[in-house]
């Protein structure tokens, strides 16, 4: 029997992970990435939650990432006046996630794909998709080349070209009213925060940071920014302009917020936060969407990478057990849609609490938050989020 071939659009996290699972399922895959070459410095850092680590464990690369990342079990919440409000667990039932630089995660998954002989082609910007006469699909790229396969998977992120081509009627990603900024610096005076990430609900903006045992600091800020904008527009701001903008927004916030921002000499990342709360359909013909292309979540719940990894293993199982792609795609969407959309809504609700600027609402938030944090202080309060597991060996039925 002829092996099926998958065209995977997007070489970030979901694409190479899916290719690895498809290989286990006996399906050939080629990954097509728009960037001209691999980048060791793509993005800042992210949370890989316990549910995401479970998927990486199935691929056999969780241990390497745990060693390179920063394991943390708790997020300590602090008010804009420096008062401790409470804490939230980054996991459940004794299992916690890690914070890791995005490029390290991508490098580990990509490296395993290459080691297993999976082809990754760079400089392949998708232009168009056509259904082929034989029932498959043809991907056409801006460089004039094309590729043919039995089905195509769009793993190309929140502003997915695959989604725009196949679902022209789909709603555009929704702007959340916040910018995400961040960077890395180093301190000889701040104490390490083992197992903890500190979160500060500032007077005008939100700030989070951790200090590794080496003194390296990972930090981020979420700024209210009412007018929808783009990465391209923000790229016109110099690093000094970004720093001054952040210092102004955090002018009244407690130590060490401004000190961390001021000491950051490297690049300060800045991008607008969008999400995709509802995509009417995730598949059409021989094409299916996964990860941010289908259900992009804002970063506030720390679940973006983990959701993409869950999608990858679930879709591969469906394609393994249901040879007809349309049937497999329908099963995948049925298994994933409810959970994915719940995570998008949950993450958006967290972000809404970061954007409070009215003095009365600020006071009310800081007064009530300790109560709600105690209510959800149990390590098992978010079992629905963190304890989700996908058993690769379990069979999928139509």
Structure description:
With 398 residues, the protein is α+β, with helices and mostly antiparallel strands. The chain has two domains: 5-173 and 276-386, FAD/NAD(P)-binding domain (3-Layer(bba) Sandwich); 174-274, D-Amino Acid Oxidase, Chain A, domain 2, CATH 3.30.9.30. Helix content is 36%, strand content 28%. It has helices spanning 14-24, 50-59, 62-68, 102-115, 161-166, 231-234, 239-249, 257-263, 292-295, 304-321, 325-354, 359-375, 383-386; strands at 5-9, 28-33, 45-48, 70-79, 84-89, 91-92, 95-101, 119-122, 126-131, 137-141, 146-149, 151-154, 174-186, 195-201, 206-211, 216-224, 269-275, 283-284, 287-289. Strands 3, 4, 5, 6, 7, 13, 14, 15, 16 and 17 form a ten-stranded mixed β-sheet that branches. Strands 8-2-1-12-19-18 form a six-stranded mixed β-sheet. A hairpin with a 2-residue loop joins strand 18 (283-284) and strand 19. The chain starts with a strand and ends in a 12-residue tail after the last helix.
């Amino acid at each position: 029997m002829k092996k099926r071939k998958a065209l995977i659009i997007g070489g970030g996290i979901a694409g190479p992970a899916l290719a690895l699972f498809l290989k286990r399922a006996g399906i050939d895959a080629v990954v097509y990435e728009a960037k001209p070459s691999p980048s060791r410095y793509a993005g800042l850092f992210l949370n890989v939650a316990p549910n995401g680590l479970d998927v990486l464990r199935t691929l056999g690369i969780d241990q390497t990432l745990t060693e390179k990342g920063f394991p943390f079990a708790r997020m300590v919440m602090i008010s804009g006046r420096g008062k401790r409000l409470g804490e939230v667990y980054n996991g459940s039932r004794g299992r916690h996630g890690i914070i890791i630089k995005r490029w390290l995660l991508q490098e580990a998954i990509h490296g395993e794909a290459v080691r297993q002989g999976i082809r990754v082609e760079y400089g392949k910007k998708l232009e168009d998709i056509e259904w082929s006469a034989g029932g498959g699909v043809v991907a056409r790229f801006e460089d004039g080349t094309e590729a043919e396969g039995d089905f195509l998977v769009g793993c190309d992120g929140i502003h997915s070209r695959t989604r725009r081509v196949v679902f022209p009627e789909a709603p555009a990603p929704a702007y959340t009213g916040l910018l995400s900024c961040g960077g890395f610096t180093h301190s000889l005076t701040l104490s390490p925060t083992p197992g903890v990430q500190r979160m500060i609900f500032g007077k005008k903006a939100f700030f989070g940071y951790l200090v590794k045992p080496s003194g390296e600091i990972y930090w981020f800020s979420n700024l209210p920014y009412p007018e929808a904008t783009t990465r391209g527009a923000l790229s016109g701001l110099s690093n000094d302009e970004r720093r001054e903008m952040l210092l102004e927004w955090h002018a009244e916030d407690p130590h060490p917020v401004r000190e961390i921002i001021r000491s950051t000499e490297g690049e300060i990342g800045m991008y607008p936060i969008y999400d995709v709360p509802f995509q009417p359909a995730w598949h059409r013909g021989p094409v299916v969407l996964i990860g941010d292309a289908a259900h992009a979540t804002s970063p506030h719940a720390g679940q973006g990478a983990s959701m993409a990894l869950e999608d990858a293993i679930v879709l591969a199982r469906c394609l393994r057990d249901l040879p007809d792609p349309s049937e497999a795609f329908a099963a995948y969407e049925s298994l994933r849609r409810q959970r994915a959309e719940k995570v998008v809504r949950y993450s958006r609700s967290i972000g809404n609490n970061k954007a409070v600027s009215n003095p009365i609402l600020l006071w009310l938030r800081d007064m009530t938050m300790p109560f709600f944090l105690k209510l959800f202080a149990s390590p098992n309060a978010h079992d629905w989020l963190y304890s989700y597991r996908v058993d690769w060996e379990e069979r999928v039925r139509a």
